[in-house]
Design brief:
single chain; 128 residues; mainly beta
Length: 128
Amino acid sequence: QSQLVESGGGFVQPGESLSLSCTAFGFSLELYAVLWFRQAPGKEREGVSCIPWQGRSIKYADSVKGRFTISRDNTKNVVFLQMNNLKPEDTAVYYCALSTAFSTCAAYPDRTHEMNYWGKGTLVTVSS
């Protein structure tokens, strides 16, 4: 079964770090852009970051620039989101997604309806 699976979420204190992974099973994500979204309780889903198939022209939400780093390892079929200096407002369920129609980040951050693969999400809680 083709799917995306996120991992790495957890509970941390402000200022700490977490590394999320998005692993593809049943297909190769090598040719596709991979996007990270998050949804906090009571809020709309928002785009966090996007990495194109070749790893260049990466996109970040203004709220995470300088703190989050997206990367990919196509040999392992995985995309990472390194999150440093976490803040309470980063608390959310984090999802990875992709569209097999996009190798670039043209669909980031608003064309979520065009994503045809979504993970089930991983919870990140930042609290003192």
